[in-house]
Amino acid sequence: MIMLGEKKIDIVSKGPVFTKSDGERNDRPVFISGDPDKLKQAFFNILKNAIDYSYAKEKIEFTAFKYLRFIQIEIKNYGPGIPEEEKPYVFERFYRAANAATSYKEGSGLGLAITKEIILKHKDEIKIENSYGNWTKVIVILPIKNV
Fold first, then answer.
1. Residues 34-86: pLDDT tens digits?
2. b/e map of 50-89 (b: 16 or more CB within 10 Å)?
3. Domain count, the chain
4. Separation CA 82–CA 110 (nearest Å)
5. Is beta strand 125-131 parallel, antiparallel or unpaired with respect to 135-143?
6. Residues 6+ apart with CB under 8 A from 77
């Protein structure tokens, strides 16, 4: 669970957040600043892509690592991935990777562009890691709000 002000955002589940340094469970809510509706839209876009381009629709990994000043959220699917030469363009408006454009999935190529816009307006970071033909991981880094 991520808290935006008083609003709870359940991205995938209410599972625990793990700290990367020692793997210890941390079930306390993490508070971040931002527009709840815009951030919810950003995560919806990421999750929709993860589901649409996954070989096994039921296997989407959601992981969150809490650090001292930020939380790193990773959403990973097991699917065709993105050709390495096309990775720099996936956040551009109307761009669809060749394997996405020729698949049976409909899309406009706007989801990740809008998502990046939202994340950057919040002074946050988004990036993609990938193993072409195997998996894609979208990483979002959000600063933690001091409460």
1. 888 899 899 989 988 888 888 766 678 888 888 888 889 999 988 888 888 88
2. bebbbeeeeebebbbbbeeeebebebbbbbbbbeeebbee
3. 1
4. 16
5. antiparallel
6. 49, 50, 51, 53, 54, 59, 60, 61, 135, 136
- Domain of 66 in residue numbering reads as 2-143
Which residues contact residue 102 at a Cβ distance below 8 angstroms, ignoring those fewer than 6 apart?
none
Pick the closest to residue 31 from 1, 69, 67, 2 (CA basis).
2
Q: Which 3 state secondary structure label does DSSP give 38?
A: helix
Q: Which of 75, 114, 118 is nearest to 94 (CA)?
A: 114
Task: Please report where in the chains the tokens 């065709």 appear, as a residue.
Answer: 80
**DSSP bridge partners of 34:** none
Supply the pTM of this predicted model: 0.75
CATH number at residue 139: 3.30.565.10
Contacts of 31 by beta carbon, 8 Å cutoff, 6+ apart: 3, 4, 144, 145, 147
3-state class of 51 per DSSP?
Answer: helix
Nearby residues of 144 by Cβ (< 8 Å), 6 or more positions away: 30, 31, 32, 66, 69, 70, 71
